[in-house]
Design goal:
Elements: E1 5-9, E2 16-22, H1 32-43, H2 51-55, E3 60-63, E4 65-66, E5 69-70, E6 75-80, H3 101-108, H4 114-120, H5 125-140, E7 145-153, E8 156-157, H6 162-166, H7 170-176, H8 187-199, E9 206-213, H9 229-238, E10 243-248, E11 266-273, E12 276-280, E13 288-289, E14 292-293, E15 298-304, E16 315-317, E17 324-326, H10 337-360, H11 365-380
Antiparallel strand pairs: 1-2, 2-6, 3-6, 4-5, 7-8, 7-9, 9-15, 10-15, 11-12, 13-14, 16-17
Helix pairs in contact: 1-5, 1-10, 5-10, 9-10
Length: 382
């Protein structure tokens, strides 16, 4: 059985979203205010719809703890939907190009996109953000930090070295930004781009980056294809609605360079670092080699396509009559790249926590600590 398992349930306008997380070790103190902060971040960002102001998501724990600490049993929770109008909502007759509407109707053999979009909607990602916010509390107990930020929106890019330039001020800088971007000078361009798209009744995509800091080497594996952490992290990012591209480190850029300008030289570390006597001259691999973490920071990027719901609907068909009509408009974001970056952080946290527990797993946090410390001692001797 996998060391960590999770699932979500709930429709966009149903009573609530539900999440279940199995495999967190016993004895972990869970900070629920921390989960609510991540939920609020998912609802933020410039260019979102009014729904985000209606919702104000909060986690309500249902099981898995006593006196604030995990028991080792499944942790489950609900997030109430303030807009729970699923039974009263109209049937949209025109599927939106770019959304799940038409393919979902064809899959189930129904002519009512409402039956599809209620679950296909990215509202589900609120539950995954909560799951990720719980999982990352395990990682943080071992000095692992996850950090996401927006690097491009509608073709407007932040400076390439924004993460490095931000240094220790990164969280403050990002949380001050309406775009969750680390380049204050790009802010005006991004705002103008979103305002322009709103005026043109259009929508925008973009790119975000997720970094993993303090990640030990050797998470994941190469013995079977399914163990490869690069594949698992890629799948996690691709599981976010609207993600159409994922890069690790140099990503597609590596394809055009000679090997000497791609691979990261191994150097002696003197004094030794937290993970032993070696270090890398560069981190073009983005912290992953051979399907495993290599002790360098994780650097992952995801490209999000523009929101499919457009005020000026693209050509579509009325499913009842077959007539050509523009796709219907419902309340929608103009862009959700900042929100998607929060979801990206969450899904990376889940996969990383899963890999961490595969390597160091025990029934209690203390047992995980023991396994982790023993392995670190061995590494120092390597
Ligand atoms: C955080 C987030 C918010 C989103 N908000 C909307 C929205 O308001 N309207 C919309 O049409 N699509 C929205 N999307 C995108 C759709 O969910 C996505 O385009 C759709 O599921 C189809 O994508 P796929 O082809 O990758 O499955 C959002 C996506 C994310 C990650």
């Amino acid at each position: 059985m996998p060391r960590l398992r999770w699932t979500t349930a709930g429709e966009s306008h149903g009573a609530a979203l539900v999440g279940v997380l199995e495999g967190l070790p016993a004895g972990m103190a869970l900070d629920l205010a921390r989960v609510d902060r991540e939920l609020a971040r998912r609802q933020g960002g410039y260019g979102r719809s009014k729904r985000q102001r209606i919702e104000q998501d909060r986690i309500e724990l249902l099981s898995g703890t006593r006196a604030g600490k995990t028991l080792g049993s499944p942790v489950s929770f609900r997030i109430e939907n303030k807009d729970a109008s699923i039974e009263r909502l109209e049937v949209p007759a025109t599927p939106r190009p770019g959304h799940a509407d038409l393919a979902g109707c064809q899959k189930y053999g129904v002519a009512d996109p409402r039956l599809v979009l209620e679950r296909a909607s990215a509202r589900e990602t609120a539950a995954r953000v909560a799951l990720g916010a719980l999982a990352r509390q395990l990682l943080e107990a071992f000095g692992i930090e996850l950090f996401s930020h927006v690097t491009a929106l509608g073709g407007e890019e932040a400076r390439a070295d924004a993460f490095e330039a931000a240094g220790e001020a990164r969280a403050e800088l990002r949380d001050r930004s309406d775009f969750y971007c680390l380049d204050p000078e790009a802010e005006g361009r991004l705002r103008a781009r979103v305002d322009g798209a709103a005026e043109e009744q259009d929508s925008l995509g973009g790119v975000f980056e997720v970094r993993g800091l303090g990640v030990p080497p050797g998470l994941g594996g190469y013995a079977q294809a399914g163990e490869r952490l690069s594949a698992r992290l890629g799948a996690a990012l691709f599981s976010i609605p609207a993600i159409k591209g994922v890069e690790i480190g140099l990503g597609f850029g590596a394809a055009a360079r000679p090997g000497s300008a791609v691979h990261d030289a191994i150097l002696p570390a003197d004094p030794p670092g937290p993970f032993g006597r070696f270090r890398r001259a560069t981190n073009r691999a983005g912290g992953l080699e051979g399907g495993m973490t290599n002790g360098e920071p994780l650097v992952l990027r995801a490209a999000m396509k523009p929101i499919p719901t457009l005020r000026r609907g693209l050509p579509s068909v009325d499913l009842r009559t077959g007539a050509a009509v523009p796709a219907a408009y419902q309340r929608s974001d103009i862009t959700a790249v900042p929100a998607a970056s929060v979801v990206g952080e969450a899904v990376v946290a889940l996969v990383l926590a899963e890999a961490f527990l595969e390597k160091f797993g025990g029934d209690s946090l203390e047992q995980v600590r023991d396994a982790h410390s023993a392995w670190l001692r061995g590494l120092a001797a390597l």
